Amino acid sequence: MRYAPAILIGRIVRKLARWRKPGGGSAIPGVVVNAIAPGFLPRTLNSFPGGLVIVTGSSGKSTTTKMLVAALRAHGVSVFTNPSTANISQGLSSALLEQVSLGGRIAGDIAVLEMDEGHGALISDSLTPRVVALTNVMVDQIDRFHDSEMVAAMLAKIAARATESVVLNSDDQYLVELGERLSGVRVDRYGVSAEVLAQNPRGLGYTQTALDRLPAGEGVLLTRVNGRDAELNLDGRTYAFTLPARGTHYAVDAVTALATARSALGERFNPVVALTAISSIPPVFGRGEIVSVRGRMVEFVLVQNPASFQLNVDSLEPGTEQIMIAVGSDVRDPSYFWPVDTSGLGHVLLASGSKAHDIALQLAYDGVTVDRVEPDLGTALDAFLALDDPAHGLKTIIFSADSMRRTRAHLGLTSNDEESA
């Protein structure tokens, strides 16, 4: 009961924060609790009978975590998880406050947490995860993680705390080398086939693709992607499944989730049960999600680094007529996105966000026609949604993380991840 006062204070702060700013202030209770009771977060996370599973890496964390949770729950496992927006220490503590008892316990068999690589490394010494899943190493969030060696070191620190297994992407050179240095834990691998790589000539953002091809019968191998339809090979058998959104990057997330579910469940693992669950989940907010907004069907596409930007541009439905791009303050250096070939977009109706002119310039250099540059995101969204429905494809909004959050607030949308956490 030693954490009861901190939990009570945190809950009071949470109510006050939500009263003052509906839909916001979710991290403040965690800041307060962590200051009052620094041991609350690790003590609670380490208390689950089935252990702690951490999903971390440069990109793909949110979708992989949601797929993994669905796969575990389909096996009858009670799972505590965090919203995709609560992957740093104060956000994790705030998420725990929603369900923790005054004794510092949460009902559930296992905890599955998406964890920011930087914050995860800071608190890793106090955690004892049973399984750690590593997605990839990329130059991501350039203002924080501008150096791949630094990111790899953070992930290595988190992985070193695993007590049972580390699940890693065998197509990423940094992770391959990280796995070779691990001792005392099992290393489970996943990857993509040469055929899938050939379908993505611009690459998947790995440091060196196809470096460590999985031997036959080892790990989980993605063998085919066609829109939302995909296939993988597991133990010499081929399994077909459906993705929540189109694109090879979502298929890689699914393979990551499947390999992690297999590692966490052991003999209880059933690939058919897991893939059926993965196929049935809705997209994580903004990741290829299609929603009805003001009577219009809109697809939201989040881009967080050059690799995800390129993959999302390449996977858009050909001939999409109405596209809006919004890049916000999270992209502090606009040259960050210049390696992306945006020419496939062809025609963009609106460029918006605080970096509206910068992204419009890049589009122009790539030969993309931009009808209007409107830095005020609210004004741009209202104008875009007021347009009649397109004759072909869906209204599509491509945004950076900052613009995603502002879009959600302006349109009054609630993340389904927040609802299910």
Core attributes:
single chain, 421 residues, alpha/beta, UDP-N-acetylmuramoyl-L-alanine:D-glutamate ligase, Protein-Tyrosine Phosphatase, Chain A, 6-stranded mixed sheet, 16 helices, 20% strand, disordered C terminus, nucleotide-binding, Lipid II isoglutaminyl synthase (glutamine-hydrolyzing) subunit MurT, ATP-binding, peptidoglycan synthesis
Helix and strand layout, with pairings?
Blueprint: H1 4-20, H2 28-36, H3 40-45, E1 52-56, H4 61-74, E2 79-81, H5 89-97, E3 110-114, H6 117-123, E4 131-134, H7 148-159, E5 165-169, H8 173-181, E6 186-192, H9 194-199, E7 220-226, E8 229-234, E9 237-242, H10 248-265, H11 271-280, E10 287-293, E11 296-302, H12 306-315, E12 323-326, E13 347-352, H13 356-365, E14 369-374, H14 377-386, E15 395-399, H15 401-411, H16 416-420
Parallel strand pairs: 1-3, 1-4, 2-3, 4-5, 5-6, 6-7, 11-15, 12-13, 12-15, 13-14
Antiparallel strand pairs: 7-8, 8-9, 10-11
Please describe what this structure looks like.
The chain is an alpha/beta fold and 421 residues long. The protein folds into two domains: 4-280, Mur-like, catalytic domain (UDP-N-acetylmuramoyl-L-alanine:D-glutamate ligase, 3-Layer(aba) Sandwich); 287-420, Protein-Tyrosine Phosphatase, Chain A. It contains 16 helices and 15 strands. The chain has helices spanning 4-20, 28-36, 40-45, 61-74, 89-97, 117-123, 148-159, 173-181, 194-199, 248-265, 271-280, 306-315, 356-365, 377-386, 401-411, 416-420, and strands at 52-56, 79-81, 110-114, 131-134, 165-169, 186-192, 220-226, 229-234, 237-242, 287-293, 296-302, 323-326, 347-352, 369-374, 395-399. Strand 5, helix 8 (173-181) and strand 6 (186-192) form a beta-alpha-beta unit. The chain is globular and about 60 Å long.
